[in-house]
Amino acid sequence: MNTASLLTTLPSELHYRGEPNAWVRMTRPGLRLHSFLEGLVIGPDGSYYLADVPYGRIFRIDHGTHEWSVVLQYDGEPHGLAFRSEQELFIADYRRGILSYRLGEKEPSVICDKPAGASFKGVSDITIDDDGCVWFTDPGRTSLADPTGRLFTLTHDGTVTRVLDNIPYPNGIAISHDGMHVFVAATRANAVWRLLRNSPEQPPMAGTYIQLSGGLGPDGLATNRHGELAVAHAQNGSVWVFDKLGDLIRRVRTPEGLWTTSVRFGGPDERTLFIVEAQSGSLFTFRLET
Question: Nearest Cα to 26, choosing from 56, 64, 63, 53?
């Protein structure tokens, strides 16, 4: 059994202790959540940044001390995070769209909240490719019963393009190591889709790259320079790691909780996994063999 090791857990003094809000009542009816952690990114200084979806908080975990701090608390539902520069953090906010937050400021600013005059269904995850183009998913409450979730791009000049509009809950998103492909977690189909990043045809042809079973479905995705793809399997307590051909390398289990929401490769050789488990509010780590 490949089991991750605990790196750090959200300290009790940062637990939310109020009544369940609308997000909790909708997504986890009957439960009281102290947090729901998502959107792990590793900052330029090596620190870890996490989104607390229902309570509008962005946490920073110091790389050396593992001390937690709140760098931003605002009226929103942050899901995905991506650093655009050393000081600018992009936020995929379910209610408010794509936001920009400069570290140290009090509030984020809106970058994009309406595609072509319409409304987003509710955005989820975000990544930025080597050309500076922002890719983000817009699932709302879509599923196999309503497979109308969307994938968008946002360019430097503010142009928003709808790439796909037929995904059953598009969630995590990642760019392949060579920049050729985009991976999208189709959560409610329990699959990871793949499409060409610069396709000569629109909409681009998309296909199932990885098919999972059990749990809820894939959530966060991550790639590394070795061509590997890591998939956080929501409500399965697992991260799956696949090689550049899509063959399974490793299944890594979290020793506590089943709500694996986010994953990142880290370390100088990008062979260390960092895994977010939202049920316990923890960050786990696992070292892959070379």
Answer: 53
